[in-house]
Amino acid sequence: MMNIPCPFCGSRNEAEFAFGGPVKPDRPDPNTVSEGEWVAYLTQVPNPLGPVQERWWHVKGCGMWLTIWRDTRTHDIVEGPADAE
Amino acid sequence: MPSNRMDTGGRIDRDRPLNFTFNGRRLQGFAGDTLASALLANRVRLTARSFKYHRPRGIIGAGVEEPSTLVELLGDDASGNRPATTVPLRDGLIAKSVNCWPSPGFDLGAINQLIGRFIPAGFYYKTFKWPGWHLYEPTIRKAAGLAAAPAAPPEQGHFENRFAHCDLLIAGAGPAGLMAASTAGRAGLRVMIADEATEAGGSLLNRRLTIGGTPALGWVKAVVDELATLPNVTHLQNATVWAYREHNYLMVNERAPDNPSLLERNWRVRAGQVICATGAIERMLVFGNNDRPGVMLASAAQTYVNRYGVRPGQRAVVFTNNNSAYAVAADLTAAGITVAAIIDSRTDVPEEARTLVEDVDVLAGHVVTGARGARQVRGVTIAPVDGGASRQITCDLLAHSGGWNPAVHLWSQSRGNLRYDDTLTSFLPDQAAQDATSVGATNGQMTLADALGSGARAGADAAGITMPDIPTSADLIYAVTPLWRVEQGRDKAFLDIQNDVTVDDVHLALREGYDNVEHVKRYTTGGMGIDQGKTGNINIIGTVAMQQGAPLEELGTTTFRSPYTPVSFGAIGGLREDSVVLPYRHTPLTAWNIKNGAFMYESGARWRRPGYFPQPGESFQETVNRECRIVRNGVGVYDGSPLGTFEFKGRDVGRFLDHIYTNIMSTLKPGHGRYGLMLSDDGLIIDDGVALRLSEHRWIVSTSTGHADAMNSHFEELLQTQFPDWNVFVTTVTSQWNNATICGPLARDVMQALGTDIDISPAALPFMGFADGHVAGIPARLVRVSFTGELSFEVNVAPRHLPALWDKIMTAGAPFGIAPIGSEANHVLRVEKGFLSLGHEVDGTVDPYDLGLGWAMSKKKTDYLGKHAVAIRRSGTTNRRELVGILPEPDQMIPEGAPLTPGGERKPTEGLVTACVYSTVHDRWVGLALLENGHSRHGETVRARLKDKVIAARVTPPIHYDAAGERLRS
Amino acid sequence: MLDLSLLIIKYMPMMQKYSAAALLRHGLNRHTTWPRAWRCPPLKDAYDVIIIGAGGHGLATAYHLAKDHGITNVAILERGWLGGGNIARNTVTIRSNYMRDASIPFYVKSVALYEGLTKALNFNMMHSKRTMVDVVQTYPKMRELRRRQLTMDIYGSTYEQISVDALRRRIPALTGGGLDARLPIIGGMVHTDAGVNRHDAVAWGYARAIDAMGVEIHQQTAVENLLRGADGRINGVQTNRGLVRAPKVVVAVSGHTTTLTETAGLKLPLRTMNLTAFVSEPVKPLVDVIVNCPDAGFYFSQSDKGEMVIGGAPDMGQSFRRDIKQHVFEDTVTAMLSLFPSFKKLKLLRQWGGHLDIAHDASPIMDQTDVPGLFITAGWWGGYKAIPAGGLTLAHLVATGRPHDLMSKFTLKRFRHLDYVMESGTTTAR
Q1: What is the pLDDT of residue B105?
Q2: Which residue ranges form the domains of chain B, and what is each CATH number?
């Protein structure tokens, strides 16, 4: 169980959070991108062997959605939310 | 009765005798004994039978490394597969050996010894194939398994979990761990130190050493006493650090905590830093019949004489490849045991070792090639290590030492690297993966002075202080020369005692190509026992290395897995049982529902709801029919509180709702509501419900009960990650607004009887309208929505008012024949109306067009969640499954989920029945189905394929009742 | 130094028939005469087909390429040791109780192939057709399982509903879930086709069989990059032992699929997750079926060694760490204790994790990719039960260029039209 830094509450056990998935690129304007690009946006997520940017929802805490960089090989949080302590 | 107990010495209390029973024999030991030491004191040497060959076995170790004597405790202590060396003796203890019948002395399974030659490693892969494994499996299963399975949970006492946070967790309270704890504790760090043994001291308990010129155990006592005075230090004994997880999160299993009702406590510790002071485990030497009772680890023999005052034999031979056994020989001699000889595989014995035992014969450059004796050791055969004539020595105890393995289990679990050390001939901690260090024997510091020094250094570093003074101590220098196995004759030489894995087995595995150490482990099962190969794994790796001519560091180790030693599931679960794990969600009417005979069950999202309200003598179907008729012909009421309810506030709510709903919400006028569909961005229906606009910037959004939590996450994610600058605030108000929904043609009459200051005329409060006011004197919001297809008033009130409101509805409604209705009737009523149910008609494959809800897909909006995905999907797929109604012909029930197949044959399906209910308005069964191209097949006959029959059904539009919707708008 | 006879044993394909008689015969020689189960041949420059990953799917694919299509100039390249991936760390549950037309016949075939595998490979898989029993605690789950039952029946897969009483007779240790429990048991489903076998035997049996047909297995051979020619086609792989060419390359490396395909510039709708399992101490026979508790979220069976082999839900988040999430583990244990309270006194012996890839729609992907000549088999969650049919169908695809009928819905192309396969039967526990 990881210790996740919440900008509002401080470090909290992972069990207080819901996983929000890896951060995808910004949602493109579906009216300007091709169908293929839109499908890729919908179905593909970053899956790196190494640091991944991802979101967690502090659902059993303050309710904040926060973003961290976590190494998928070690689970080390290599970069916390910008405004975390 | 003859006894091996010494008159003096040891950490036992001779004034407190304890009676116990082993394999039916009544025996006596003392307080401070383990079951193993008490058995040895009573000269019980044959204590076990081996797993595969059922060979006679005795006690080999003195702690968690014990591979041989596993016992099953009966009575109050009932538990299985416990190493006898870790069972503290208590009065009335009843124990028996596992895996032998009827007893270890006369074990019928011993027949396996006779055929042992034909059942080498992996033999079962090559045979038992004809005519089928099922013929052999029951016998094999019965033979395996060791102890009996527990029959019931503990009758008394409970388990618990506890969280702890500390700056420094120290695993192990031996000299290094205690030194670290004392150093860091004095410096003010929040320290937790946990040790698996019943008392602190580690190896010092088993040896005769001095610290600061006095017996080492005096130093241990002083440190333990001081730790007890430090409020920042938590010191646990009988507590094993069994798992090292990510982010310095460790598990400590504390047995018999100081609380009479508590069986075990599992600590979940988040540590700033961790010091692994877990000591080292002695490894066996590998020679013929190295498993005979009386063949024992040297350190264990030392422990029995020093700690328990027990002589494990009268005449000993010590066999070693390292210095540590010389101290053992000295201690055995001091305890009155004759040490007939020390057999040392090294040609050069260091002088400092030799001087410890000047009166004992030392045969350098010799090895024990085999132990003699059938049921216990009666002597050994020895020979020069480089060949030559063998000879025999009589003995009843063979104490052997193959060197020491640092207990790197926790370190390895933390993902720290290991390196092979040629000097110590073992794997040592290398690079740390987390904030952890290792000290003492765990780190290869094999002498007491080095252990104390490394502990003090680690404690000082953790606290950021300078190194304290180290008390003086004297210890034998450790030196070892590897001896992975002794070349010998035909007797079995065991690498893994518990799983009966021999040198021949490993050679066979290699010969057959199973040459990775993981293959060797799996093919031979070496290291896969309960002890996880604590004494033997390195010998297996060494044997592989010898055979392949490869260095050990290239082979590496197999993976060290948690737990370090077995942990009961009860301790892992703690007090988290049943409704603690899965709390109920109740509405304020649960008590009323139960009192009024409701059949309650969970119907999604953990809500416990009334399914139906049976009256005496009524069958399930009769109850549901009655409740349906009441709603269709009179008036019923149900508790709609669990429906997900969210309040949205802010300037951008309209814009946000336009993004998440398929239809346009922003044009809704205050005071009105609108039904809408929500899709995920890849076009799957995720929810449906009604949005009410309370005022320009305030809205109420309702979601289905089961999806409320997911929708909450959905809203928050979008608002916080995609639209952080939009002015929208969402508050879950499901439990702030409860409701009673009055439905049926007489609903308005009941409302009038209740009394309300809201104008409830159809013109003033039309369908999808709502108004705030009072109902029966209670502040309420009245909403005209309908899930039944009838005139409905959803009376929303604060939860504290719901029971009062409910009572008033029952009283006011009595003249109109009002009755409560449950979820089952609701289901029937919605099927008659063709209303959707997520989980029935919406199963991830259909889109709004398939469901006849294409009107809800806004054409005006250029973008909303799911719009483009639905278009892409529809452009690429044909023969979509579309929602239809069905009328079974002849009239009968079709089970929900029944597949529709072409002609009713066993062929790929063309659809399925999503619901089929008995309609009281039509007095027949009606249903809904998803059917390929169903919208264009109204009037056709389709066939549901059941296991033993086919049922035909006529395809109809999906609305079986009041297609024009006049009743719900009335 | 090795003598010539050892070299021959090491490099020449040969197969010793396994039988009780052979055991007796070799036993008289103290088992010093058994040949290698597979060779350790030198790595060539080029093959007709390279399969990356000596796990279940890779080995089975090679088997069917050789046996069904006569393609034997095949190399399996394995980064670690043969059979060391998810086939070494799964819970050996074999079953066909799926929901959709697209899935059921595939798994029916896989179960049938598994049942014949001991004979086909002359290697005892210890296949034990011991039935899976679902313990159902909610009505929505019961409704879903009944729906599966009716569709499964079309394809000859068995699923029968039983009463609570019958359930408790079948599993006497199931003493929780009574009427006053948080989630009372409401019934059960019995899937008699389900079974367990020995996972190592599957890996070794296939390895031995394909070796005898001439396929080469190269362990400790890590593929670092997929190589494409100027025409965009795949034409080989870069390994830690050098460059190896082949016009067809199969990626069968659960978990690391995207790691590899991204070296060829190919993105896939897959993410990698961790799934864990654990075993209890070995005890005498207590439970003789596979017990699946979908509402509680765990399942287990008792191995022939006597250990309870227990699995639960996957961890959240992408992971290659093969680790245990304590809170997820505790949830699984707690769920188990709620239905099997006597297990409080049973002890945890060993636990482990494995990473697997999950597709965007949670159904498997077996297809030739947009890189011509590059094939993938991925997204199986726990793909153990799919190994034999997965090998059969992938070999068909690689050899003929056309998807096998049993896998025709599971192409990569389905994502182009977002035509997902929404299968609820994928995981055992949920």
Answers
A1: 78
A2: 13-113 (3.10.20.440), 158-280+406-463 (3.50.50.60), 284-402 (3.50.50.60), 489-564 (1.10.10.1100), 644-732 (3.30.70.1400)
Q: Where in the sequence is the domain holding C355, given as residue range(s)? A: 130-193+271-359
Q: What is the pLDDT of residues B863-890, one digit of tens each?
A: 999 999 999 999 988 899 999 999 999 9
The token pair that represents B395 in the structure block? 């003995």
CB contact under 8 A, C271 and A75: no
What is the structure's pLDDT at B235? Answer: 98
pLDDT at B17 > cutoff 90? yes
Tell me chain C's radius of gyration from C-alpha atoms.
Answer: 22
Mean pLDDT of A37-54: 96
Tell me if A15 is assigned to some domain: yes
Residue B872 tokens, joined: 């892409």
Rounded CA separation B295/C323 (Å): 38
Q: Is B431 on the interface with A (CB under 8 A)?
A: no
| Number of domains making up chain A | 1
Tokens of B847: 């889109």
B736 interfaces chain A, CB cutoff of 8 Å:
no
The CATH number covering residue A19 comes to: 3.30.2270.10
Whether the CB of B568 is below 8 Å from some CB of chain C: the reply is yes
Q: Is C120 on the interface with B (CB under 8 A)?
A: no
CATH code of the domain in which C146 resides: 3.30.9.10
Is A84 domain-assigned? no
Residues of chain A numbered 4-33 and touching chain B (CB < 8 Å): 13, 18, 20, 27, 29-31
CA–CA separation, B787 and B342 (whole Å): 89
pLDDT recorded at residue B1: 52
| C184-211 per-position pLDDT tens digit | 999 999 999 999 999 999 999 999 999 9
CA atoms of B763 and B390, how far apart (whole Å): 113
At a CB cut-off of 8 Å and minimum separation 6, what does C205 contact? B125, C117, C118, C121, C122, C123, C125
User: Could A43 and C321 be called an inter-chain contact, meaning their C-beta atoms sit closer than 8 Å?
Assistant: no
Q: Is C296 domain-assigned?
A: yes
Contact residues, chain A, for B270 at CB < 8 Å: 3, 13
SS (HEC) of B812-856:
HHHHHCCEECCHHHHHHHHHHHCCCCECCCECCCCCCCCCCCHHH
Give the C-alpha separation, B553 to B64, whole Å.
Answer: 26
Asked, for residue C7, whether it belongs to a domain, the answer is: no
With contact defined as beta carbons under 8 Å apart, do B851 and B657 qualify?
A: no
* Residue B277 near residue B170 (C-beta atoms within 8 A): yes
Tokens of B593: 């529902």
Sort residue C131 into left (φ over 0), alpha (ψ -120 to 50) or beta. Answer: left
pLDDT at B914: 96
Touching A (3+ Cβ pairs <8 A), the chains are B, C
Chains that touch B (3 or more CB pairs under 8 A): A, C
- According to DSSP, the β-strands at B501-502 and B494-496 are antiparallel
User: What's the pLDDT tens digit per position in B832-863?
Assistant: 999 998 888 988 889 999 999 999 999 999 99
pLDDT of residue B583: 83
3-class secondary structure, C415: helix
Backbone angles phi, psi at B369, to 5 degrees: -90, -20
In a domain, A85, yes or no: no
Of B196, B192, B197, B167, whose CA–CA distance to B181 is shortest?
A: B192
In a domain, C148, yes or no: yes
The predicted-structure confidence for B736-745, as pLDDT tens digits, reads as follows 999 999 999 9
What average pLDDT does range B122-136 have in this prediction? 87
Exposure pattern of B303-322 as b/e (b: 16+ CB <10 Å)?
Answer: bbbbbbbbbbbeebbbbbbb
Q: Do B129 and C24 touch (CB under 8 A)?
A: no
